[in-house]
Every structure is written in structure tokens, then in C-alpha cells.
Amino acid sequence: MESESTVTTCYRHPKVESHVRCTRCDRYICPDCMREAAVGHQCVECVREGARSIRQARTVFGGRVSTVPVVTYVLIALNVLAYLAQLARSDVTSRFQMLGAGLSSAGEHYLWLDGYPAGYHPEGVIVGEWYRLLTGAFLHLPATETPFGILHIVMNMASLWSLGAVVEARLGRVRYLALYLLSALGGSVLVLLIAPYVAVVGASGAIFGVGAAYYVTSRRIGGDMRQVNQFIGSLLLWLLISAGLTSWQGHLGGLLTGGAVTLAYAYAPRGRHRALVQAAACVALLALLVVLAVVKQSDLATRLA
Description:
By secondary structure, the chain is mostly helical. Helix content is about 55%, strand content about 5%. It is built from ten helices and seven strands. It has helices spanning about 45-55, 70-90, 90-95, 130-135, 150-170, 175-195, 205-220, 225-240, 250-265, 275-305, and strands at about 20, 30, 35, 40, 100-105, 110, 120-125. The strands form three sheets. A three-stranded antiparallel β-sheet has the order 6-5-7, with no helix packed on it. A two-stranded antiparallel sheet has the order 1-2. A hairpin with a 4-residue loop joins strand 3 and strand 4 (about 40). The longest helix is centred in the last third of the chain and has 31 residues, at about 275-305. The model has no long low-confidence stretch (mean pLDDT about 85).
């Protein structure tokens, strides 16, 4: 008596006949569901499960390893786009530059005057324009206002390119982005605390924070410190020289903030809670900067009243 042959079908496509089994789960799979493995074929679900179980490569500081500095590319692009917007519209700089307290009247902008006359309106962080604390870090001196404008953004972007690519590779994209934004904020907050009546633009504060990260991470991984020390020495020298040219407060604030963030990254205890400790340190620093900014803004508003 002749026995009937059993027809086997794909577990994901019951209408498709299949004679190949997944080497991991032993279920039948059709050609559309086959994925090549070291031995034989695996089904889609087993491949996905295997990918989840593979431990992702991490940097010394806990970030995911990446070979392309995507965040650095994006930050440079944002700075360049903001600069083009400044050239296209003259009011972009005055509207988004870092300014603690200033005056405007009929579309014109002025430095702060105690007991400002009628017809003038206060502007800046003093009236709740908090966005200036970050937007100012993406603007630069426009070439339409000063011959040094193009040099300002070129030097900053060149520094960001050379430093950012190295630091991003060491920290990972998420940690690097947090470092950059906190450094930018730290620079603006120090400007607000010390020189609230001065208008400031430039990515220098954030870049100085990245420079501090370069120094701290180099020491942590045991790099050649002679070259690093020479670089940091030139960075500090520029900080002193820039006191009479640009906002040294923004540079110093970014440098200190970036150093603090990177110390938390570098010396957080290893283990499964390291990322949590690093994130908590960033949140604590952010809270401190926010508190300092709010207290200063309240003080300026009280004087206005």
C-alpha cells in the first residue's frame, strides 16, 4: 500500500511549499524567509533575535563605536546654514544672538541703558528669550558687518572639524552631542552672569568644551600628552588673547562645562550603571546651569521693574 507524502510549508507563508529548515529553530522556511548563516540558513526571526543578543562594540567611555563623525558633520552644517541666514537677513543676528539685556526701538537694537527712555523696549533673556542661550552658539560675526566675519566662522569650523571628529569617535555620538550642547549652554550662562549687557555670537564656547574633552579623554586613555599639552596651551593662550577681542566669558564657560562633563564620562564607575551615572551627571550640570540662568534673569528683571 503506497503511503501519502506529507507536504511541508513555510511557517510564515503556509501556502508556500518548503523543504528547508532553519538551522536555529528547525522550522520550515521558504526562499523569501531564508537568511544565510555560517552553516545553512536561518529564518527572519532567528536572525533578528541573534542580532539583539550580540553585544554592541563600545568605546572606552561607554559610547557606541562609530567610524563616521555624523554629529560633527551636522553641527558644522547647522553653523554654516545659520551663517547663510545671517547674510540673507540682517535681523537674524540681533534676533537670535546671545544677549542678557538689551534695547530695541523701531527695528534698531542698542546696548542697555539704565532708565531707558520711552519708545525703547527691552529684549534678551531679561524678557524671557531663553532660546538665545543656545541659538547664539550657532551664529557668527557676519561678513556684512565686519571684515573678520568670514574668518570667525572658518576658524571655528576648522577647529570643530579637527577636534570634533576625534572626540566624537572617543565618546560616541550621544555623549558627544550632550557635551557640545552643554558646553554651548555653559558658555552662554557665564556670559549672562558676568556680561549680561554684551551681545555675543559664536560656537567658540562649545568648541572650547570639546577641546577640554580632548584633553581629559587623552589623559584617560594614556595618550601622548606632549602634543595634547601643547594644544591645550595654545587654547588657553587664545583664551587670554581673546579677552579684548571676543567673549572670553563664553570661552571660559564652555571650557569649564566641557571639562566637567568629560570628567563624569571618563571616571564614572564601569558596569551596567555607568551610562546612568553619566546621564545623571549631565542632568545635574544642566540643572545647575538652568538655576544660575533663572536667578540672574530674575535679578535683571527686578532691576527693570
